[in-house]
Amino acid sequence: MQTLMLAYQSLGVVYGDLGTSPTQVLTSITVKNVTDEDLLGIFSLIFWSLTLLAQIKYVFVVLHANDHGEGGTFALYSNLRRHINFQSELAVKSTSSESEANMISQSRRSTLRSKTKRLIEGISSAQSLVTFVVLLSTCLVIGDGALTPATGVLSTLQGVQSHSSSKITQDHVVWMAVVLLIALFAFQRCGTSKISLCFSPVMILWYAANVSIGIYNIIRYQPYVLEAISPHYIVKFFLNNGKIGWVSLGAVFLTVTGVEALFADLGHFNKRAVQVVAFSFVVYPAMVLSYAGQTAYLIKNPSQIVNAYYSSIPVPIYWPMFVISYLAALVSSQSMISASFSIVKQSIPLGFFPRVNIIHTSSKHEGQVYSPEINYILMILCIGLVIGFKGGVELANAYGVVVIWVMIVTTCLTTLVMLVIRETNVILVLGFFTIFIVLEGIFMTSLLNKIPQGGGVSIALSAFFLTMMLSWRYGRIKKRKYEAERKMSLIELDEMLVGGRVYRTPGICFFYYDIVNGIPPIMRHYLQHTNSVQEIMVIVTVRSLPVKSVRPEERLIVGNLGNEGTYRCLLQLGYNDLVTSEGKDCVALIVAKIREQANTDNEIQKLGSTAENEVVLVIGRTILNSNPNNGWLSCFTINYLYRFIQKNCRAVISVLEMPPERTLQVGTVYEI
């Protein structure tokens, strides 16, 4: 029953994008003077694209490469870096957490797998390349979160013009789309579960209606249209049309756009629900019958190809179907918006994305999240695209360019997962990679023609997010390198605390910083300028691990730093663990752990007498300043891009939800 419910909900979010493509695909075909054989060839291309890319690749292969229920390119990357020792500066370093070690398969690997692993581990540039490709794919998906709503809503609203008064112009359609998109983005705060429950009936009605119309058109216009599933119609199509047929592949590819959201949204639902119940028995057959029905209609009415989807709808049910199609377009938008939230959430703990507010909207499903900042950024970009292009053709071109590159990256990363991690036969791995990289490469060459016709928008959006992520990552790398070289030693800390230069006041001080090993240099700065610290001092590091969840017994690790009253606390969290240290509970838990480590009765007494109002929380904040000798690029990246992002992202204090009345923020400037 739970699987059926999740499948029901997933229809309302995961498959919305794939389900609304019939409104655009055949309309975008570039073949002129189309013949019956051309139409059958196009339908054969659509059928095999859905079968190979959506059904076989994603549903039955890629979904198995998830990271403990989480999907998307970052989940694949997280899975790989736990099994491969990444050491390049750009890559996320592997960790030695017991939680991660227990997730690593201990099964015997073949010689080829061992060689592949050693090859990647031995070449730093290969690790950086894998990381960069993952970042690029992530930026493409986030940009898709703006392109999908703009494309889906605009293309659906075109139906108003084709069956309405000429008084309704394209400008009217654009402003209708803007109003509806604002409402959609405002609705995101409700959470995936509530949204999917609202949208699921729409999608079930949408698929049922498309199947019914498809069967009706097949019976009425051309019953033998299903014979076109034979691949020889594809050969005839290319022989008859040559280059024009190849260019038309860009339109055919729109049938499978949406499967990248299927994988990225996996954490919101259940693999079995997505794989078997929702896709195999609902979405896939519904899409095949819908396209078959449109093809059958066009065989008898070839002149209607410019408005294929809406023209094939019987007149008596046109307006009800238009309303359903519009609602389904909103669902398609939801699929990529949810995927963007998931990807940003996964990338923040890895240090690739500035801190934004991540709100968990479900107590049952950890992957269901909402980010207000990302939501409104996508809304502004989406509205700008709608107003700027005022039509669906250019946006559809940009959309296809985005998705094909995400698919190619997913194919490469899934191949590495199958080769290095999973016990997959080498012949099957090579077969998977060869078939899909060739197939997607052919689609990619066709879609390159779309770049001057609107596809450049996707490149611009991706470049915007990629610049932000790389700038943030570069600044974080420089900051950690500076701190690693200048961190305090235990001897230096003991000399300052015991030598009488620092006055010890009653109470307990929690000093939050992000150095895992060693004492941060800002501690030296703090002690030198205040000349005092509480009797109990705890250096707390919140460490985000690229795993789904850290086991409870490993989340809090406390150790004595040698001097009486000085401790280090390591708080380890996965990207699905709630990051909070609010109020009394976390403080009490840390104090209880410290009491277990206390060496003297005097120290235990101090811990026991510490009152609630004697707790002080100190946050370290650093500002980077690049030395002019580093060159103009480093100076621009650090002094302008990184510092701008740092200033406008959420501070550590807000992410940790620490009580502001007990918090002191200490800042310093790093000259790097």
Automatic annotation (TrEMBL):
Pfam families: K_trans, K_trans_C
Annotated compartments: Cell membrane; Membrane
Region forming the signal peptide: none
Transmembrane helix is among the record's keywords: yes
Domain K+ potassium transporter C-terminal as annotated: residue spans: 506-672
InterPro entries: K+_transporter, K_trans_C, K_trans_N
Domain K+ potassium transporter integral membrane: 6-490
Topological relation to the membrane, as annotated: Multi-pass membrane protein
Chain ranges passing through the membrane: 40-60, 119-143, 172-190, 197-219, 244-264, 276-297, 317-337, 374-393, 399-420, 427-448, 454-472
GO molecular function: potassium ion transmembrane transporter activity
Gene Ontology CC terms, in alphabetical order: plasma membrane
Keyword set, alphabetical order: Ion transport, Membrane, Potassium, Potassium transport, Transmembrane, Transmembrane helix, Transport
Main subcellular location of this protein, as a coarse class: membrane
Family membership noted in the UniProt record: Belongs to the HAK/KUP transporter (TC 2.A.72.3) family.
Entries under NCBIfam families matching the protein: kup
Summary of the function given for this chain in its UniProt record: Potassium transporter.
Protein name: Potassium transporter
Organism: Escallonia herrerae
Lineage: Eukaryota, Viridiplantae, Streptophyta, Embryophyta, Tracheophyta
